[in-house]
Amino acid sequence: MRITVVCKGRDWELKQLQNEAKKLSIDLEVIDISTLDSIPNQIGDTVIWRSSSITISDSKKNHEQAIEDRKLAMQNIMNRATLINRCSSIFPYAREKFFQQKHVSEKLPFINCIPTFQFQTKDEIIQAIENKILHLPFITKPNIGSKGNGVILIRNIYNLEQCEKNFSEMVFQNFIKNSGDYRVFILGGKAIGVIKRIAKNGGFLNNISQGGSAETVTDTKILKILNNIGSAVASAFHLTICGVDIIYDEIEKKFFFLEVNTTPQWRGFQGTTKINVAKDILLFCNRLSERASQQLFSVVKNEYDSHIHLLQEKKFHYLSRLFLWTGENMYKKQIDKLQKEYIGINEKESFSTLKKLYESPIDHGSFMPSKKEREPYFKKYPHLEPCLNLLFKNLFSKKIYNINLRTSLQKIIDDTMLITLKNNLLQDEDAIRVLSTHAINFFYLLENYLPSNPEVKIDAQQYLKIGTNYTEMNAELQLYFFTHCIIGASKFYSESIKKEDKKVYLTMLKISEKIIQKNFKNISLDNKFEFLVCAKICGFQSSVEKNIYDEASQSLSPDGNFLIDTKNDKATQIGRNTFVGSEHRNVLFIMSQIPFRFSLHKKY
């Protein structure tokens, strides 16, 4: 494999890449475009773009022409090789802090952005202070800059003299009270590490280059938030390698996006975390090159299997599904390590975990399908989701850890309340159809929880009848409805479905197949893979399987060996097209390609 690095000048990071390439016997060449007017014709299979400035060379060209030259150069590379960090070919002003805040606020509404202003004169700034848009003290910094250079804390209007000649080149932000900021390092759609940077005593700049110190972040709750923000921002800017800076407002108690570094340095990050970034980058490039010689299934499975440690809160989901589906010991060994975190190692810990889960507020997030239609029914049945969460814990604890939580659960939820909830739902078919997965999962999990109680016995024929009465506008919910009937019948991939119900579930699959055929462009890749998984469970050979896998073959992320969802009208939001955000889609894809150990083997 041959790798080309396009850069301007030679820095510590470039030397690290060269040193690690020698150790790994990788052919790495460097193209310094400081003195070139164009990219040479001979380049590597993978090209790493490490130049963030506008111009391709030092020749005197107007700004717009320089932007166009760079765009053409990058597009030329993309026609011949894999280009890492194609951001500048899409967003020519991505380096500008004003553009960054605007872009993230528009593309990622679930991320808090810092109100950022530009002014031309001192009078405009004073007017903004009088109108309470800016509040003293506030920050001003170069619109294009790095390492904390040129950042000024404006404590009073007299401090404005420090930047008076450059107002048009600066941005202005209200000061955020903080105890440091965070750098999330992103590589291939994954957050490989996070550091907290802390200003030296008496300072306000957290940058290591400005004398700040750094520490590795290990708190899992904070990491989950920071990693999700960082990977979503990287995806929004089409950045394969970048550093995303985030700050915590101690007054508002919120995390805010600060900026993204399109050509990140990592000397301070590596010194703090001990992560060999250059080596990780080169190994990542090597994995990208495997696309040309390996099947899509192998490429995706290898990527997830070798980076389970970076799946954050999705570890249990990935490991549990593949262990239950395949029975493979490699997944069991890893999921055993999560027992304490998932349910505890004794009854006291289990009860504490369950009680906390039951009492925790429900966050539907911004990605829930038909959220607006579902929320009135969540309010109508407020116990549904808390009970659903506990019943999930019960099933997976039994199937994976051989722990029956019945004793602990009886102290939290009453059997009579559960049965009453089921009966009330069954009399409200509109609620069942809109709640879809939530209602269906509850019914099947309740039967698993109270297996000897005839009042909760599943009537698959009844659910088939309810599921056939959807309007065309609810095709997505109908598909969810039927696939989760089948998944529920398999006790979430841990058993075969009952043979006496086989015909009912095959009918559900045939209806689902027609839904997909009729609405192919309007159904997400996640839903299509889930359908194929259900087909495996039932031994059903679908006529749309090839079409689904054809879409999958066009859906590899440019930033890593995982499938994203961009080729249909239901394509998911940016936040779910990261390595972690795509886990659900990719584990279903992997499962759909592997025989189900409890499958009804006969093909229909």
> Radius of gyration over alpha carbons?
27 Å
**How would you name the oligomeric state of the polypeptide chains in this document?**
single chain
**Share in β-strands:** 5-15%
Helical content class: 40-55%
Task: Please state how the strands of the largest beta sheet are arranged side by side.
Answer: 11-10-9-12-13
* Mean pLDDT over all positions: 91
Q: What gross morphology would you assign? A: globular
Tell me the number of strands: 13
Most strands sheet: 5 strands, antiparallel
Secondary-structure-based class equals alpha+beta
Give the terminus-to-terminus CA distance.
45 Å
Q: Helix count?
A: 25
Q: Unreliable runs, pLDDT <50, ≥5 residues?
A: none
